[in-house]
Records
---
Amino acid sequence: MTNVTNQKAIVLFSSGLDSVVNVSILQHIYKIEPILLFIDYGQKALEAELQSTKRFASANGLKLITHKISDRILGSKLTDGNSDIDVDVSDGREAPVDLVPYRNLQFALIGAQYARKLNINIVSFAFNISEMGAYPDNTDRFLENLNEMFLATTYYPYEQPIFFISPTIRFTKTELVKIGAYLGADFKNSTSCYYPVNNLACGVCNSCRFRIEAFKRAKVKDQIDYAIEIDFDSQPVSYEDVKMLLDVALQDKQKLEQKLEKFGLTLGASHV
Amino acid sequence: MCNIVLSYSKNYLEPDLVDYMLDILPTKGRDNYSALIVDDDFNVRLIHNKDYDTFKTLVDLYMPTKLLLLHSRAIPETETNTYNGPNIYTNNRFYVAHHGIIPNAEQINKNIKIDSQALLDIYETIDYENINKWFMQSVKKYPRSSVEIVYDVENDKLVIANTFMPLYYTIIDDMYIYVAYKPDDRFCSMQPYSVKVIDLKEILVYK
């Protein structure tokens, strides 16, 4: 039987808001060590995301794997060369212009390969409720089916099962900011901007707008610098503010523990 | 984005089941709560509250029931007008609980404030005789990521539908339960892009 450690997880990481809070939840609630996996799929914000990811990994003492997909994923404004990502301020009801078809399915396969190589059996995404309705591969159905498909193609016990999780999936971005602020997430070394201006977040692209809205609603000051002036109303996040959210996160952790237990595995314990 | 928890039975829903439904409701969406309760005479009660504990107390006041639909709302950051509307929406013929996004909702109805209102317009054309064909045509015409639970008062029918957003179901002691977030392994996934109609005259018993 292969030696597997449940003290670590491969964490698909973009250095965005969801990614950094995901790392905090894994560290502080799941008690496991995240190994960051950054994937270059030809995204337009590649340079900013990669530099921010490197800063985040270095500042937090985390291992970082970078993986380049040889052929750029086509069919999305996030990757295609001749189209701009929409910057207009609409009410968010338009069809998602930044949908990258099957992206997370490809990410899952890549994450699983690294997990297998490093004898790790947890791969973590950072989905959130706010974006679930816009991207079919960000839903809990996607995760459920992914887990079922991988288990159905695993010849246990010759091969160890790989579990795909998303500790952030039950929260809005606003709730993730609250959880992150409470757990001490490194927001300073994150980036969400599609169009950085002299290494500053533009503050007007859709991604910046939703991030700013989340911090404002959470009443937390964003730690990154913006090219435009933004007023954040900041107040400390107490345990009472996040108690219900932490309970929800713990429930998901317990569900993962039950799945692992079926295969004689224990979360956070070395299995050799 | 929301959670939806639905249960119906020929018998009154067990108090333990109602407690269970209320417990799992805030696992997805915690900004606003609502409930639709149908009594033995098919009278409908709607409850809305932002406070979870108050909401639970209000729901308990109207128990027992044979049909209970719960809905919790997460207000996404894309919704910058911060409209904090009721979760279950009605035009008095249809009661709609919706989880997901209708990207072109305003093309359906310019005056809407929340997506659920657009669903009311979509369901005005419902064709029960050809429900599968009608549903897929409506999705093609009005693309949407959704779980839709629609109670049709005129026809005593319950429509349960989903596109790519998930809906899970199980049967416990003759009580049918549907949930938009899978609580445990007793629940199975409804096929994506599918619809089913429940004739409540065959399920609920009139006084």
---
Amino acid sequence: MTATVSPAPAQRLTGDQWALRGLVLTLLALFVVFLALPLAAMLRKSFENRDGEFVGFANYVAYFATPSLSISLWNSLLVAAVTTAIVLPVAFVFAFALTRSRMPGKAAFRAVVLIPVLAPSLLPAIALVYLFGNQGMARWALMGHSIYGPIGIVIAQVFFNLPQAVMLMVATLAMADQRLYESAAALKTPRRRVWLTITWPEVRFGLASCALVTFVKVITDFGSAIVIGGGYNVLATDIYKQVVGQLDFGMGAVIGVVLMVPAIIAFLGNQAIQRRQQAVLTARSVPYSPPPSPARDAWLFVFCALVALFMLLILGVAVWGSFVTYWPYNLTLSLRNYDFANFDPSGWAPFVNAVKMGLMTSAIGTVVVFVGAYALEKVKGFGPACAVTATLAMVPLAVPGLVLGLSYVIFFNARVNPLEPLMGTLLLMAIGTLVHYYTVCHLTAVTALKQLDREFEAVSESLKVSLFRTFLRVTMPICMPAILEIAGFLFLAAMASVSVLIFIYAPDTRVASVAVVNINDAGFTAAAAAMATCIVATCALFKAVHGLVAHVVERWSGAWRRSGGR
Amino acid sequence: MEHAVCIEGVTKAFGSFTALNGVDLDIRKGELICFLGPSGCGKTTLLRIIAGLEQQSAGRIVQDGRDVSRLPTAERDFGIVFQSYALFPNLTVAANIGYGLVNQKASNAERIARVDELLALIGLSGSGPKYPAQLSGGQQQRVALARALATSPSLLLLDEPLSALDARVRLHLRGEIRALQRRLGVTTILVTHDQEEALTMADRIVVMNHGVIEQVGAPEEVYAAPRTRFAAEFVGAMNFLRARVAGQGFADLDGIRVDCDTRGMPAGAEADLAVRPEDVHLLPETPGAEGLAGSVAALEFLGASLRASVQLDGSRTARPVFCDLSRREVAEHRIELGGRCRAKIARGAAVAFPCR
């Protein structure tokens, strides 16, 4: 009987809905231009010879037939596996101490383990040169082995990857329901069985996810290997050498594609894990509160103290080294290494560029990410376009920064590209950084938006108030903490990131993190340490200011949040 | 009488699932009409279609003589209160209530006066500067109501407005909402799964199940003369007693003649007699007593009354029969657990439905 009824005509769209559709399409267009097309261009390049002629799989055949190149693949996998094997247990125990013990000084430990977030990945490598390099102060500790090579890369990577791993594990371990542990105790369950039946199911997905993320970050990171890799070739440095050294974009593209394989596998693996992982915590869960156990706390404290000492030592050596006038002959402290004009013709310009680029990334990125996520969440009946855009927003997670940078050179440098003037500008560098970190920010925004009542828009429509007004008066103020978090994250990421930018800067737009690589390449380790220290100091300062701003904003507009309860 | 809303052949399909199947309904001006049904019956979908928040697959909605089927939510005329209230947590109570007034060409002073008037209407004068989180659930509910009424819409939509509240607050607010609705005379649609709420508040009840309307009528009508078995079962408590239609207007229940509405079923047809527990009278087992013999299997204390479960002797109805008694009756007739008794069905209280 329903079949005989003609379908109802579609509802007319309001101006608001047209605007949201426009925003979704704009975001889609941006993704196509700044993500999909460059990657496609790189893929195409991998099938072309130096003259741009199509040669099929010849480049790939050449790559795997050249032992000096293909050995890098195994080197990369080995270094990544060893680093992951160290980072995973350390991060787990550290996070366990932070979430499930009564150990003192948790806040301080948490702060210390996050230090590397403020630093470029080159910093630990430089510190290692001071400690164990050819003139290092603790060279004896390596018992004849060289720090230049896998040992150095692994130590630097452990330092650099620990914060993210610890945060992932903290997020996992914090999701414990006290009631489960109390029920187990009431049923007189032995400790081993509690671990096997409650704790392990809670943490296994988090552990797997953490392992994948760490593994891929090591494979795709460029900063540590370029400084301390020595003659030990890995994929990330190979791309750099092929492209910057030999201008062989075809071979560079091949390595780029090879580099994407583990990243894509990890990405898909993570998606599968997230699908299987169900919400462990419900609104009615009782947060876990660890029972007192002085012995456990003492052991964990010693462990955390050792890890923290390692972090502080690496940072401290790099900072101290930057002030030493002339290592190892003149140990008086001075600002000589900060006079960058002595080591590099651009002087302080890269630092200024970095701050400019960071602010641009943060400003443009916060607006695009939040407005984009809002449009995707609130647009009605725009299924296919939304699905494609939302998928593209997840893709950057599977694209290493180095690969993104390489694809930008290939795409934007092409003379036929009308966007060619963008090449080498701070704007394109900011866009590249934004695209690289897009997914994390997008998910932060989506999570914040999903916490809002779904009916806010319905209510404002019924009251004839435009979506735009509700966005400004309600959505944005409520999401302010997430918005500030995105803005802060993007600035720090832009300041410290090297891999996206190493291919796309122009001489006058070189940024501080790239300058660290160049200065170090030129043999001025101390000046490189000084530039890296500048980045850390700026990030720390930014973080302090950011905290202050967040506090003021909260006082000014967050009165309702504090009014909770009755 | 002119209708406030006419729903004509509205169908809604979500993929292969049919949420609404050819629903027709006319809503009168100024009435409080209740969409009542279990979850998944399509009542909320129908409300959302009237609001334009959901698009029907077929059929049309006419409001005040105007076909609004194609109009977006913003161009329809209604106020709405959601189950979650959807109050803006970062705005004060006054700003929430005045949220829709900003668009109207009213001066600041007029707006403030209107908000004050509404605050007084819901009995929250002085709470204007508070934030929603500082109010109790019932107060938040009233603020949401005031916000929906602020722009004086001709239609008020309430989507399970009381289900998030404590039982005691719910009882109190039922009366308040009803009084407010009467005073303002605003046509109101209330969606609920709570039959008691529907019976106490509505002018008319629309009983829905599986995407179709089972019955529309005044509460007394739906309660006393359910049109379908589902309506009989869902609204209030109901006994179904196995019987056989014996003629026009009476049936044979375990050998006893019971007058009932046979709904045109032929003599000899198997039927279930629907009888409310309060229409089953329990009498003591005395020599020569009338009614169905049985024993009291359970006696449940409900406060003002008691509910007895009576297992009938040799009956075709396997399940015990519920009967509601006052405490006085229990004492008078010596009804006690395990005791013998006779159950009598009140004259004209039974309705026959075909057996399932």
